[in-house]
Amino acid sequence: GGVMQSHREGEWLAETGPNTFLVKTGRVERFLHRTSIAEHRIFAPPEAKKRYILRDGELRELPSGPIKFLTTDLFSTNAKLRLLKEPFVGKPPEDEEQSVAEFVRRRIGQEFLDYAINPFVAGVYAGDPKKLSLKHAMPRMHNLEQQYGSLIWGMLRGSRERKERDRDLPKHNRIFSFIDGLGQLTKLLAEPLEDHIHYDTEVTGFRQNRDETWQVTFTRNDESQSDTRQHSALVSTLPLHRLSDLQLDLASTDALSPLQSVTYPPLSVWTFGVHRSQVEHPLDGFGMLLPEVENRNILGTLFSSTLFPGRAPEDHVTLTSFLGGARQPTLARKSEDGQRSLVLRELQDLLGLEGDTEFEHAVQWSHAIPQYELGFGTVKKALNKLEETNPGLYLAGNYREGASINDCMDYAIRLGDRLKDTE
């Protein structure tokens, strides 16, 4: 399960990695039903659609429809009028790579970059839109501009195409989790494969044999062992920053260099549990995101117990906050006490949290989410070259086609189909 684990203490539950799952493709939806995982899902309530953005020190609801957009005070009148210009903004050449920030500033203006895209990028990638590649980090936006010349026209004209592509998705697609957290997903996936999974085993290297089969070296129970079975294929989902730690015997290793340059910023995840009466804010939504221009110390906070049941005892709530990322990596390297104080001060100031906590859980990831930064095309070419020059080797994970659970699962399903076809 990697970083996707759930920590339970009595009636409290904290996630160590992702907190929600949204299916975006029919392929993933069909897989969840085929494996019976779908029947274990619990869905977030309708109020989870509400998201708060901090502006001028005040939490404001992100508008979810045209009427709310026209009346919201999150964006100024000038920013709203600026949108009318978007269909007439020209597009750059397809081969010209642009950052997310450059794209948004050019098409819809600085204010939408500051108070919509910047906090969104922090929530998804813990990243910096000035560094992220639009083509690789937000391919849908890139494709809309290239195909239709406008985001607005693309969303209007492409609606029929999207409906056809996503016809297997539920009409009202919602985020979901499981009663015991997202860590339950990996357990459900593992159950039918139990006899074929080796737990508490660290891979230290792998090499290809002369007959193009693969052999893996690993450590189990502190004793180095060699896997003597012959494998026709090897799928590695190790983070790119760990590949250099392995003993690799590959036909070509020059492609490893671009992979080692991928940024994995540090990120800390803090979950606090308190009595409901200790929080002034109604917590009536998904959570809050804090734009960089607001100069706060956390990236955002999820209202975890609002999202799903089973996260806190009755009349209590849990709040999950994120610290560090590409925006402020040094904060995620502070001492645990220093981090705790920073997060609690923000929750006190922004949500009106008072009194002592009843539950706390923290995890510090020194290498969190891979950043799809400018030049990421070189990384993808290197990945493809490694697979081409080492038949039977496949690299998969959150650095291939997106960092979300859906992105990773969708790629894995397609890879599984490719492996079946080679049998």
Rg, rounded, reads 23 Å
Helix/strand-derived category reads alpha+beta
- The mean pLDDT is 92
Shape verdict: globular
Brief rundown of the structure:
This protein has 16 helices and 17 strands. The protein has helices at 26-34, 66-71, 77-82, 100-107, 110-125, 134-137, 139-148, 151-157, 159-165, 183-190, 240-243, 256-260, 304-307, 336-351, 376-389, 405-422; strands spanning 6-9, 12-15, 41-43, 51-55, 58-61, 176-178, 201-208, 214-220, 223-226, 234-236, 247-249, 267-275, 287-289, 300-302, 316-324, 359-365, 393-395.
General description of the model:
The protein is α+β, with helices and mostly antiparallel strands and 423 residues long. It is built from 16 helices and 17 strands. It has helices at residues 26-34, 66-71, 77-82, 100-107, 110-125, 134-137, 139-148, 151-157, 159-165, 183-190, 240-243, 256-260, 304-307, 336-351, 376-389, 405-422, and strands at residues 6-9, 12-15, 41-43, 51-55, 58-61, 176-178, 201-208, 214-220, 223-226, 234-236, 247-249, 267-275, 287-289, 300-302, 316-324, 359-365, 393-395. A hairpin with a 2-residue loop joins strand 8 and strand 9. Helix 4 (100-107) packs antiparallel against helix 5 (110-125). The longest helix has 18 residues, at 405-422. The chain is globular and about 65 Å long. The two termini are 26 Å apart. The mean pLDDT is 92.
